[in-house]
Specification:
Chain lengths: 138, 193
């Protein structure tokens, strides 16, 4: 899955996902990616989040919505992501997942669980730029 | 703000990030354009086999696609799920957002919608996805997502039927004992939602 957040210079926030889902799934199964609040969520007044991982588990907790609500409560993006995934880990300590979170003013962060590290890609600023791959330890 | 515009995405799918950012900065497009363009790069490049056609075959060997776009200013959403036979999932999701009052279309009906919007119907199976599926079949359909069924999903490809309450009682099982693992098998960098 790719989960992406885009924020333009005026602070217009959008988020989305695209995926072919889990390998060997039972036909008809859909994961978290196309579910609002689960695979991604955006609110231009605060920011956005996009998640990836075991969609059968993650979709039970709406982690992207939780992260955006964390931003609304004043958490920074990393804290918001960590808080959203921690909610899942209480019930499923072995789940695999990652989340990227950005506030509408351009701060960003990531969190993950069940992997050694989680890479994510960032391009920022008003000039043509190179993409930076960052990693967060889980 | 120096940080804006900003594009950030899961995993090291840098061509998608770059495309979306260029679309914003050079193309001066709106962020939805940039998002669709960025995600579409991954659909074409089949990022890690986890996005786009020819990856993650289901038990029948078929690849289906899911995509969603959310506009955080209007709170409008367009999404497709389990869409068959159309490669451009993000672009179809955009049509759901822009050309319908709905939020999510699924399955064969999502395909029919896509065709109506001008997309081509074509198989999403590739030689690689067929090979992955055949390896899985040859490995007795392991791993899989079944539980509490007979024959045992750890040894058999089915067809399955649910274990009856009588069988559970007679064998002194509890439903928790039957749930050997709450998680899907082998989620990792190359297998994820």
């Amino acid at each position: 899955t790719i989960g992406m957040i885009v924020i333009d210079a005026e602070g217009h926030v959008v988020a989305g996902t695209s995926t072919n889902g889990a390998r060997n799934k039972i036909p008809g199964r859909v994961g978290d990616s196309p579910i609002p609040g689960s695979g991604a969520y955006a609110d231009s007044t605060v920011g956005a989040a996009a998640a990836t991982g075991d969609g059968d588990i993650m979709m039970r907790f709406m982690p992207s919505l939780l992260a955006v609500e964390g931003l609304r409560r004043g958490l920074n993006p990393t804290q918001a992501g960590e808080t959203a995934l921690a909610r899942i880990a209480v019930h499923y300590p072995n789940f695999v997942g990652g989340i990227v979170v950005a506030s509408s003013d351009g701060q960003y962060g990531a969190a993950c669980h069940g992997m050694e590290e989680f890479p994510y890609s960032v391009a920022e600023g008003s000039k043509e730029t190179e993409v930076v791959v960052k990693k967060v330890k889980c | 703000d120096q940080a804006l515009p900003l594009v950030i995405n899961t995993w090291a799918f840098t061509n998608s990030t770059l495309r979306a950012h260029q679309w914003l900065v050079v193309g001066e497009s709106d962020p939805i354009d940039a998002l669709v363009e960025g995600c579409s790069v991954c659909e074409r490049e089949q990022c890690d086999g986890t996005v786009g056609y020819g990856g993650s075959p289901d038990e029948n060997g078929e690849t289906t696609l899911d995509a969603m776009i959310m506009d955080g200013s209007t709170m409008n959403i367009g999404a497709v799920a389990a869409m068959r036979d159309v490669k451009h999932a993000s672009a179809v999701a955009r049509h759901v957002l822009e050309n319908t009052k709905h939020t999510l279309l699924v399955g064969e009906r999502a395909t029919e919608f896509a065709v109506q919007m001008g997309f081509k119907r074509e198989s999403l199976q590739t030689d690689r996805s067929k090979e992955m599926w055949e390896q899985w079949k040859n490995n007795h359909c392991q791993p899989n997502f079944w539980q509490n069924v007979i024959p045992s999903p750890s040894m058999s490809c089915g067809p399955y039927e649910p274990i009856s309450d009588n069988a559970i009682t007679q064998n002194h099982w509890t439903s928790n004992e039957l749930n050997e693992d709450d998680h899907g098998p082998n989620f990792n960098r190359f297998n994820h939602d």
